[in-house]
């Protein structure tokens, strides 16, 4: 066994090397292998198969395994695909900017202005939305934002509106925020709370103004965590189909909606696979760029 | 320091607004589930239980609830077992491909659900598992095992490494030490992992929608109602789902917190 058990204390190792426990790799592999087999069969294999599927052909409504470029050429040459791509990328970028900006003052307050126990409670509250149905929350927004909905009813009391909020980009962004805001606040709060307080106090004592402290001290120190939060926000917004469909009106469709339309009406799984592969490549590029800039040394 | 107080007031007001934004849809959904108007708005209509009665009498909803319950419980068991073995491996062993090993396990939550849904749909069709309840269980296990692993791994890092070694020195083999020392120590984390993975599975709709075939789960039924038209039934089902998930999450949280508190009191 080349692997040294570094976490086990030495007195245990003495016994394992001489005793009956030593030659029992069954235990070790019984712990280690199940997840490898499971994720290999049901996570990696499906993804690889999907990439392969983008080269299959559909004949007489049946998918046949093959290796042709037809699906790729077809999708790449269509304007609606690129419109959809630009829209999805733009919306996800906008969502990331909006959510990161909206979340920051909240995370700042939770990280620096409240007690530890209040922060723990706030984070617990922020976890709750993850376990409530996202669909139901979006349906709720649909009713709240509608032309005769709650917000417009309230606005009409002070003589405003009605405003059209459904089937607009505004609606889509509200939906994306519903999905990503709690997670982004949690990640931002943790990365801000981990900053060494004495550095902030030092800046303050040296006469640095609060805004400048945020810009010159806090943001650079929390950079890694903040970029990770932004990457998660982008990934979630980019891959979500519920908000652009129900709140954004889906005209034109975003890439996830394109996948659903292609699969549910017409059995064109290979073409849907092309869209999915393009999405994966985009997300890998964004995540990689994000991580590279998060760990890049300052000043280089 | 009047300016500081002003700033503090502003920040707390802002924080309150953000929480209002986050919880408004949940609260309104619960309020509207008791509201008699088909298209609810302000001022509210009368109080009614008819949406609850409608879903209570709907055999499709019952069927979906049964499927959802079976799926969540199976997912919770499988994901927690896999997560435990993985967390223990990470805690106990060092090996060359460990970063790759951990990446393999922790990656699924970063892949958009719609992509996983398409990939799983195609793969299950290929290996002859399409449209069955077991396919939903398998897919949700892939998705939730990382959460189980993370929760149990956190608990293991609180353990004194010499506990297990002491058990070996007293003559227990690794299986016995696992059963008598590690698992009892991890029990609160195992219970929370069980509840949280069940809650995630109970709410997941994208993958379930693609691969469930005729075996619809509750979120898939919601999705189909929502696609049709405005129907406050959704709020009634949603409140029921909310209640179920919240119960699970609160159990998970309370179990973890009381255990940690007890240990702190014990040591301190």
What descriptive keywords fit this protein?
heterodimer, A: mainly alpha, MetI-like fold, two-stranded antiparallel sheet, 14 helices, 72% helix, globular, B: 268 residues, 78% helix
Describe the structure.
The complex is a heterodimer of chains A (300) and B (268). Chain A has a two-stranded antiparallel sheet. Helix content of chain A is 72%, strand content 2%. Chain A has helices at 10-18, 25-53, 70-76, 79-112, 116-127, 134-145, 150-157, 169-193, 197-205, 210-221, 223-239, 242-246, 255-264, 269-295; strands spanning 57-59, 62-64. In chain A, helix 6 packs across helix 8 and helix 11 packs antiparallel against helix 14 (269-295). Chain B is mainly α. In chain B, helix 6 (133-156) crosses helix 8 (174-203) and helix 10 (218-228) packs antiparallel against helix 11 (233-267). The radius of gyration of chain B is 23 Å and the shape is globular. At the A-B interface, helix 1, helix 2, helix 4, helix 5 and helix 6 of A face helix 1, helix 3, helix 4, helix 5 and helix 6 of B.
Entry summary:
The complex is a heterodimer of chains A (300) and B (268). By secondary structure, chain A is mostly helical. Chain A has helices spanning 10-18, 25-53, 70-76, 79-112, 116-127, 134-145, 150-157, 169-193, 197-205, 210-221, 223-239, 242-246, 255-264, 269-295, and strands at 57-59, 62-64.
Low-confidence spans of chain A: pLDDT under 50, at least 5 residues? 1-20
From the N-terminal CA to the C-terminal CA of chain A, the straight-line distance is 42 Å
Q: Tell me the number of structural domains of chain B.
A: 1
Profile the largest sheet of chain A.
2 strands, antiparallel
């Amino acid at each position: 066994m080349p692997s040294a058990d570094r976490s086990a204390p030495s007195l245990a190792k003495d016994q394992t090397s001489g005793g009956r426990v030593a030659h029992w790799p069954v235990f070790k592999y019984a712990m280690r292998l199940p997840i490898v087999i499971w994720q290999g069969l049901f996570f990696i294999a499906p993804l690889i198969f999907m990439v392969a599927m983008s080269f299959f052909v559909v004949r007489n409504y049946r998918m046949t395994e093959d290796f042709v470029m037809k699906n790729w050429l077809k999708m790449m040459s269509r304007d609606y695909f690129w419109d959809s791509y630009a829209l999805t990328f733009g919306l996800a970028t906008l969502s990331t900017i909006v959510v990161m900006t909206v979340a920051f003052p909240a995370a700042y307050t939770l990280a620096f202005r409240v007690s530890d126990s209040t922060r723990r409670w706030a984070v617990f509250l922020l976890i709750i939305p993850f376990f409530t149905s996202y669909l139901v929350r979006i349906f709720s927004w649909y009713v709240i934002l509608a032309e005769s909905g709650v917000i417009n009813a309230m606005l009409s009391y002070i003589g405003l509106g009605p405003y059209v909020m459904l089937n607009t980009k505004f609606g889509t962004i509200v939906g994306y925020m519903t999905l990503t805001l709690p997670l982004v606040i949690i990640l931002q709060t943790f990365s801000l709370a981990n900053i060494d307080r004495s550095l902030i106090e030092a800046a303050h004592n040296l006469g640095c103004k609060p805004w400048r402290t945020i810009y010159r001290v806090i943001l650079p120190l929390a950079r890694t965590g903040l970029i990770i939060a932004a990457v998660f926000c982008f990934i979630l917004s980019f891959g979500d189909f519920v908000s652009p469909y129900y709140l954004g009106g889906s005209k034109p469709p975003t890439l996830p909606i394109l996948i659903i339309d292609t699969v549910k009406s017409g059995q064109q799984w290979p073409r849907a696979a092309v869209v999915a592969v393009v999405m994966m490549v985009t997300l890998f590029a964004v995540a990689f760029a994000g991580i590279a800039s998060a760990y890049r040394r300052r000043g280089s | 320091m009047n300016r500081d107080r002003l700033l503090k007031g502003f920040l707390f007001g802002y924080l309150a607004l953000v929480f209002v934004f986050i919880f408004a849809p949940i609260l309104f959904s619960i309020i509207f589930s008791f509201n008699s108007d088909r298209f609810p708005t302000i001022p509210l209509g009368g109080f009614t239980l008819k949406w609850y009665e409608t879903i209570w009498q709907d055999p499709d909803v019952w069927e979906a609830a049964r499927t959802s319950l079976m799926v969540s419980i199976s997912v919770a068991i499988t994901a927690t077992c896999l997560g435990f073995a993985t967390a223990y491996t990470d805690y106990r062993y060092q090996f060359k491909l460990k970063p790759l090993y951990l990446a393999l396990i922790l990656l699924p939550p970063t892949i958009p659900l719609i992509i996983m849904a398409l990939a799983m749909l195609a793969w299950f069709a290929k290996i002859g598992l399409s449209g069955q309840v077991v396919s939903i269980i398998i897919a949700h296990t892939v998705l939730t095992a990382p959460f189980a692993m993370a929760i149990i791994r956190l608990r293991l890092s609180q353990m004194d490494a010499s506990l297990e070694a002491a058990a070996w020195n007293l003559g227990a083999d690794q299986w016995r030490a696992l059963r008598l020392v590690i698992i009892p120590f991890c029990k609160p984390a195992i219970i929370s992992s069980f509840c949280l993975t069940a809650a995630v599975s109970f709410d997941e709709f994208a993958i379930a929608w693609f691969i469930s075939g005729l075996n619809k789960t509750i979120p898939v039924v919601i999705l189909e109602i929502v696609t049709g038209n405005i129907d406050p039934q959704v709020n009634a089902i949603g409140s029921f789902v909310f209640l179920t998930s919240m119960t699970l999450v609160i159990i998970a949280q309370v179990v973890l917190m009381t255990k940690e508190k007890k240990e702190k009191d014990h040591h301190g």
